[in-house]
Every structure is written in structure tokens, then in C-alpha cells.
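Appendix B. One record, verbatim.
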Amino acid sequence: MPAAACRNTIDFAALAAEIRQWAAELGFRDIGIAGTELGEDETHLLNWLAAGRHGEMDYMANHGVKRSRPAELQPGTLRVISVRMDYLPAGARDGWDVLGDPDAAYVARYALGRDYHKLMRNRLQKLADRIAARTGPFGYRAFVDSAPVLERALARDAGIGWIGKHTCLIDSRGGSWFFLGELFTDLPLPLGAAATAHCGTCTRCIEICPTRAILAPYQLDARRCIAYLTIESRGPIPVELRPLIGNRIFGCDDCQLVCPWNKFATPTTEPDFAPRHRLDDSRLVDLFAWTEAEFLQRTEGSPIRRTGYPGWLRNIAVALGNAPYAEPTMQALAARQDDPSELVREHVAWALAEQRRKQAAHASVSAGPAPGAG
């Protein structure tokens, strides 16, 4: 590369074009440049927090308004370079197929492979290094879901996609199966054009949500969201929501699976996002049998580690309670009735009661009508 240039001689439009090229070489599917004004998004965030829809996620309210004011989070920030990396794994068992198999375990597509945080941070650092080689030292900070950042709003303003009615980001050319990362910078790069919304009158994501967590377009109550209940929440899953979770043991993708724009999604070519330990096609009873040592070994470098072992068993117990009655299911649950975790014991007891109820109903149907009835 040429020697670093003096900042007042830099052609920032040309630099932006080079950054886009470098990002593509580093495996980012798309890139855009946003400003730092997020006034409307800040109001939306504050209203959401005031309504308590963040549940136990106290970190969402921490740091005041730094989440919506990039220059306060990272002083000197003028622009935000937003990047996208696709994660839909090629060759994974079809999501609808897994959801339709009540004895199978559904894991959100983003969590089937290795954790994306470190991978994307490393790539962002390499991007920053390339920029510095061209411009000389500059102020920057990389983020990958690691600090209070309104990443979807910034990505929208950068032109990567629009925020859909389910609150996920959607790209008209590639759907919504992607991660986001940011590089806050003090370089006065030219701004991209903000993406415009194209959900139209479609409400499929609202209608498909198993727990009705999408209260209205762009209004998500995390306390009812299966992703929150199975990942973020550390306590008992509300009894009334357990039957609605089905066989989803880590996250939920229904709103993305049903989105028409995902017909344009293409599988990732990133090897790290390929399914590990057959998590795209595993039986609930098999995963429930993992010891804590097996859980730690098989989730090393995986987003699933976030639940912790008790949370993992809690989630699977609920799914087993929702499964059709089967003796192996009953045996698997009974083996954990005395689990050291009170959280696990509670959910196992619930699941056993559900299985016994189904067993009784099954026996009643098998017996047929009493002699002389009718």
C-alpha cells in the first residue's frame, strides 16, 4: 500500500470505495456508512424501556442515552461504518422441518455454528488496519454486539437494510439472516443513503409469532419473545408461555422463516457458521442427556454457552413436556427429577406432569368407549 497520507489530502470518497472493497475481501457481504444522529430511534428506545418491555435485560437501560448517541459512547465519532456478515448455514436441516418434528430440538440458525463475535471483531480490526495503512493513525472503535449500540438503526442509515415489523433488519437483496458489526470512526467519510422500508401490508411475522411477542408493527415485547425466554432470562419460564415454546430450545426464527424477503437469502460461505455437533438435527432426549462436562465441551466457542447448563436443561425440559407422550421421554425427565438445580427441577416437574396428562389421554383413546356406551 502507498505511504499513509496526510488527512487533509485524503480523498474520502475514494477511501470509502476502497473500504467497501476491503470489507468484501474480508468476508463482509455488505457495508455502509452512517452518521450519528438517531433522535427518533432514541425516543423509540426510551419508550420501550419505560414500558418495561426489556424484561430482565437491565443492560439495555444502562449507560443512559449513549446507546443512541455514538459520539458520547466513543468521543470524536463522526461516522459509523456498518458491516453485514451472512450466517444461514448451507446444508442444515430445514428450519420448518425441525419445527414440525416435536421430538427434534430447534436451535436458532445463528447459533448452529461458532460464535460470531470474535470472528467479526477480528475482521473489523483487519479492516481498521487497512484503513490506517492508507490514512495514518485515526480514531476508531470496533463493536460486535459488545457495547450499547443501536446497530440496526445505524445499519438502516448506512443503507444495509430496513427495520422490519418484527424489528429485525431486512435487505431486499438478501433477506435477514445476517450479523451486524460496527466501526466507529472520526474520519469524515461520505454518508450512504438510508434504506427505505418495504414490508408493505405484510404482517406474516406478527401472525406467526408463537407467543404473540410482536404486539404491533415494530413493537416487540421481549418478555414474551422465545429468544429472550430461552437465552436472556435466567429464571423460570412463565407457565402460560411454556406450551407455546414447542421444541425451540435456543432462540426462535419463526418471524424470519416466514418473511417473504428471505427467498433472496443465500447460504453463507463462512466455514465457522456450519452446524456443529449435529445441532441442526438432534433429538431432544439426546441433548437432555448431556452431562455438564459434555455441555461445556460441545458448546465451546458457541453462542449456546450463554444459557449456562441449568438454562440449557430448563429449555429442553420444556420442549420435552411439549413433545408427544413417549416412554423414553418420560424416562429422560424422570432421570433429572433430583437435579441439583432448583430451576431444572421445577421445569422437569412441569414437563413430567404434561407427559402424564398426555399418557392418560392416550390411554383413554386407546381403550375406546366403555362396553354398552353409545
